[in-house]
């Protein structure tokens, strides 16, 4: 018998962005309570450590104040993996999937929340996109776990080895940044399977579901959407440039690539680390040993991030490309932006500018607040703040030593980075239509 139509709750009169923020906050608090259960940890876990870990997992960031592999039991690690899944897929996306499987009809209100969660501009085909996301997530993570089992099972045995393969597959695809080794993926810095599988999972999880679906269905360049073309070209250019730059800057550094024996191992580590820089969060070398120039490169890549409708954070690749194209159009005295035979709407450019300005203001304010309680590690704090806001999870090793105030700032940044600076801006602003128009004024720039 069909379950009756699910009517939206009358008590929910908040904008979709506000409801989503509350849902993520509720999941974080639930995750904190679950991680405090006795069977979840191998030793006592402070409430703030549980809250920080839950926030990092739900926001798919990966910053940690305790050793995930040593401090949590298999049950605790399973809770973190579940939080990564829910945070990565999206709270509303997961809820709609469950309701749909139970036979509930999804109403207009739920579609509005889902549209906000998936960062879409229209409610058309949202349910279809939701099921595509589910299939992509399950398929990629299952294949990733099977491949990684080849590495972990011989080392750890069948049970533990398969669990490690599954956990790291989930962490990689969700761009979660959590690892069950105290030094992340450093023990496998020259392992070919790890260096190929985990970065590919991170790329697939961070490039966006719409891109994967478009490539799978169309399979021809001229049939791809403008978004897909921009993401593929932008991702390829960023990977080539960043991997080359990292190898060039760190090749002889004894604290990073210089410690590796062969050129292939150095290029493998450069590839792994630069894929992780834009949202993956895992590391196979000591990031604290990087040159300051490389650290700044890392920060820029973290800010750019991955793709829309993906597990990745940051400004997003398409946002970065549109910013560059806008600057080029301005210098060429062009009123419209044209790329791949298409033009970009003015409202999309305004959204890009709003998102960029909001992100940069949040980052600058956060770094300022962090320096009020610091001992002079400004670059490390800048790196940590960027990693949190872009939900990357990379760190120069200072996360566990942060003060309570600094941890609070980092948790707030992770939350804002996942919910979305633009969503929060829309929530905080009153959406009123101007009733009065004023004469145009002249402003001088430059």
Task: Report on this structure.
By secondary structure, this protein is an all-alpha fold. The chain has one domain (16-426). The protein is built from 18 helices and two strands. β1 and β2 (342-344) form a beta hairpin. α11 runs antiparallel to α13 (292-304) and α15 packs across α16.
Write the layout of secondary structure elements.
Blueprint lengths: L15 H20 L11 H12 L9 H4 L2 H16 L1 H11 L6 H10 L8 H31 L1 H16 L18 H16 L1 H10 L7 H25 L12 H18 L11 H13 L12 H15 L5 E3 L2 E3 L1 H26 L6 H12 L14 H16 L1 H8 L18
Antiparallel strand pairs: 1-2
General form: globular
* Helical content band: 55-70%
pLDDT under 50 segments (min length 5)? 1-12
What is the average of the pLDDT values?
Answer: 84
The tally of domains stands at: 1
> What is the number of beta strands?
2
Class by SSE composition: mainly alpha
Report on the biggest sheet: 2 strands, antiparallel
Order of helices and strands: HHHHHHHHHHHHHHEEHHHH
Give the strand content. under 5%
Distance between the termini: 67 Å
Please report the number of helical segments.
18
Query: Strand arrangement, largest sheet?
Result: 1-2
- C-alpha Rg, in Å? 22 Å
């Amino acid at each position: 018998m069909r379950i009756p139509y699910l009517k939206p709750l009358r008590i929910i009169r908040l904008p979709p962005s506000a409801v989503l923020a509350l849902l993520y906050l509720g999941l974080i608090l639930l995750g904190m309570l679950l991680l405090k259960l006795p069977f979840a940890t191998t030793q006592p876990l402070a409430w703030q450590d549980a809250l920080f870990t839950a926030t990092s997992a739900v926001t798919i960031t990966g910053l940690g104040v305790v050793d995930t592999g040593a401090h949590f039991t298999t049950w605790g690690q399973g809770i973190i993996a579940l939080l990564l899944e829910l945070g990565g897929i999206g709270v509303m996306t997961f809820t709609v999937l469950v309701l749909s499987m139970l036979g509930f009809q999804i109403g207009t209100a739920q579609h509005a929340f889902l549209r906000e969660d998936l960062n879409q501009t229209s409610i058309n085909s949202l349910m279809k996109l939701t099921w595509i996301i589910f299939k992509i997530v399950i398929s990629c993570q299952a294949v990733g776990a099977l491949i990684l089992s080849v590495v972990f099972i011989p080392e750890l045995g069948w049970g533990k080895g398969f669990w490690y393969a599954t956990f790291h597959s989930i962490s990689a695809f969700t761009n979660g940044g959590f690892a069950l080794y105290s030094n992340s993926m450093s023990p496998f810095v020259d392992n070919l399977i790890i260096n190929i599988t985990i970065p590919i999972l991170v790329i697939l999880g961070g490039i966006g579901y719409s891109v994967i679906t478009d490539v799978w269905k169309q399979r021809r360049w001229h049939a791809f959407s403008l978004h897909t073309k921009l993401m593929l070209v932008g991702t390829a250019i960023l990977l080539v440039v960043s991997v080359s730059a990292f190898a060039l800057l760190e090749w002889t550094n004894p604290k990073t690539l210089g410690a590796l024996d062969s050129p292939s191992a150095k290029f493998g580590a450069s590839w792994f680390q630069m894929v992780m820089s834009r949202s993956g969060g895992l590391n196979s070398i000591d990031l604290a040993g990087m040159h300051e120039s490389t650290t700044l490169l890392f920060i820029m890549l973290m800010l750019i991030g991955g793709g829309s409708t993906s597990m990745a954070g940051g400004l997003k690749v398409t946002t970065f490309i549109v910013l560059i194209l806008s600057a080029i159009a301005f210098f060429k005295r062009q009123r419209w932006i044209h790329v791949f035979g298409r033009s970009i709407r003015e409202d999309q450019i305004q959204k890009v500018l709003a998102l960029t300005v909001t992100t940069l203001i949040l980052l600058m304010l956060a770094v300022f607040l962090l320096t009020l309680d610091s001992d002079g590690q400004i670059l490390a704090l800048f790196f940590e703040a960027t990693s949190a806001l872009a939900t990357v999870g990379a760190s120069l090793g200072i996360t566990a030593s942060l003060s309570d105030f600094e941890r609070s700032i980092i948790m707030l940044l992770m939350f804002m980075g996942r919910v979305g600076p633009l969503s929060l801006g829309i929530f905080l602003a009153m959406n009123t239509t101007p009733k009065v128009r004023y004469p145009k004024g002249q402003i001088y720039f430059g």
